[in-house]
Amino acid sequence: MKYLSTRGRNEILESAEAIITGISDNGGLFVPQSIPTLSLDDIASLQDVNYQQRAARILKEFLTDFSSEDIDDCIEKAYNLDKFDGPEVAPIKTLGDGNHVLELWHGPTSAFKDMALQLLPQVMSKALKMTEESAEIVILVATSGDTGKAALEGFKDVDQIKIIVFYPHSGVSEIQRLQMVTQQGENVSVIAIKGNFDDAQTGVKNIFSNNAFNKEIAKEGFQLSSANSINWGRLVPQIVYYFSAYADMLKAGNITLGNKVNFVVPTGNFGNILAGYYAKAMGLPINKLICASNPNNVLTDFLNTGVYDRNRSFHKTISPSMDILISSNLERLLYHVTSGDSKQVSQWMEELKVTGKYNIGSEYLQDIQDIFWAGWADDKQTIRTIKDIFDKYSYTADPHTAVAWFVGEEYRRRTSDKTPNVILSTASPYKFNESVLEALVGTDLLIGKSEFDMLEELSRLSGIKIPKALAGLKNVKVRFSKSCEKEEMEENIKNILTK
Length: 499
Ligand SMILES: *Cc1c(COP(=O)(O)O)cnc(C)c1O
Fold this sequence. Notes:
By secondary structure, the protein is of the alpha/beta class. It has a domain at 80-112 and 233-433: Rossmann fold. The protein is 45% helix and 15% strand. Helix 3 (51-62) crosses helix 4, helix 11 (232-251) crosses helix 12 (271-281) and helix 19 (433-441) crosses helix 20. It is globular. The two termini are 40 Å apart. The mean pLDDT is 95. The structure holds pyridoxal-5'-phosphate.
């Protein structure tokens, strides 16, 4: 399996190189040259094995330059049950009325980013050995909250790698902020940006494509790479849980082999749902991939009209991990639906950069709509949905999960489709305890309560144990309090590297 850039060029890379590099120097993203397929029998056989073995089955299709032993070793370290808080890595809960919730937040940072970011550092570390890379890798991360912490936790004290995280200074929840600024590890740095997530992400992307900057740090022995979902090594582990969910539903007798399911995905950078697209292309029986957004509904409009237009106001919402107007991974979808027309993809991306919009036309739109459906929920609807799910099923959902739930219901109403919905639950309710409590008990009861009082209160209501790492934040020292303008990112990186 080889990898190409979505924006063309003659480079053909092994997966190890694609993962170390992160992003092509022409600005494109790496995509697999072809998409492997699994038969229904292959899929059925996943029922009998655990998550780690399911992961190995999928990863071996994509990381063909890695030895089987190396892949097993990475998986063993990543999905070690000491780090995950339950007996299963990605359990699926059946709530009723054809609704199943796939919980992706049992990892060390209580968000779905752990599913990929526990594995990526292991894979990158092996890739550095395989390619005999001598440079020290500097992982630059722009985060809307969850990626930053998950990446810090995954990369902390990994040899030959440093990590620098930029987060929007008032764009993350208090728990998310505390998780990051208290991070342990000798190779980690965390900086707040005076701007929003898109500013942070654009800043990081510009630094990646700034040749002069890259040359300058190369002289000091450093090479940049990415842990954002633009890195192929982030996407491939995410394909696994789509297969795993299907296998668990088969095993539980919720479906029979070959039956289709819908996946409802709360979406920001289009990484999670794109992994679902790959799963479908690999032969997993998926009817629709339902893309759920918050008021930053640029993807809803795109999937309904074929016009991507980021010229709109940015909304801060109670589902901040989806407060994004430039969904980077869409570029990979465009590459695949145009059958690899990298000229066309480059042109759209140039239009996006210059005018803030592009239009893919009705034919490609039709192909995309055969697979995707899209909707969105505002904060009020999200709050109401959290309460409804709690009242009806005694289930406590975080705001991102609730956005997906709302859109899944809307899809059913509009289409009368009876296919089971698997809702991807992307964060523990404890990561957003203020919004969840507001939904369950109202705002009056929250006045004067600290984050930690709220954790206790939520535990009392939901009956779920507070994740240890979150409870422990109360007594941990803040290590990082620096903030900078978005124009000062490069300078800050240089300072960290030459320290
Ligand atoms: C990152 C994140 C999302 C969005 O995922 P994308 O891959 O960016 O589409 C949704 N919910 C939560 C809780 C997240 O952390």
